[in-house]
Amino acid sequence: VQLAESGGGRVRSGESLRLSCEASALPFSRYVMSWHRQAPGKERELVADIDSDGFEINYADSVKGRFTISRDNAKNTVHLQMNALKPDDTAVYYCNAKMAGWPMFDYWGQGTQVTVSS
Predict the structure, then answer these.
(1) Contact 109, 5 (CB under 8 A)
(2) Which DSSP string corresponds to 43-94?
(3) Which of 27, 66, 78, 91 suits 14 as a labelling partner, its CA being 20 to 30 A distant?
(4) Would you give the DSSP letter of residue 29?
(5) Residue 60 to residues 27, 75, 93: CA-CA distances in angstroms?
(6) pLDDT averaged over 10-residue windows placed end to end, the chain, 118 residues
């Protein structure tokens, strides 16, 4: 199983980035997909998740109204559109795939750095 994130980078406050995570070697449409982030000196936190069908979506309060998670089951890909970025959004962003009810099927990507300058 591999989760490959892309789209990170360095932007200025107020700008946008779109992260992508492409999954391979797993039945993607059966997995809940999520994005997490970890800033220096802080614990990893959930940013957004989306259920297998894309109907149930949750966001951290800190990103509501600015970030949008979406998935394309035909392409085994999940995206995170990040608008109105703030310096506090600076972190390594990780993609996660988890099969509901099966804790052994829980996979992480290697992470992609997002840096937002003021």
Answers:
(1) yes
(2) --EEEEEE-TTS--EEE-TTTTTTEEEEEETTTTEEEEEE-S--GGG-EEEE
(3) 78
(4) G
(5) 26, 26, 14
(6) 96 98 94 97 97 95 98 97 98 96 92 97
Q: Tokens standing for 76? A: 């085994």
Q: How far apart are CA 48 and CA 59, in angstroms?
A: 4
In the prediction, which pLDDT does 116 show? 98
Residue 30 has phi, psi (to 5 degrees) of: -100, 0
Q: β-strands 9-12, 112-117: how paired?
A: parallel
Q: How far apart are CA 97 and CA 79, in angstroms?
A: 13
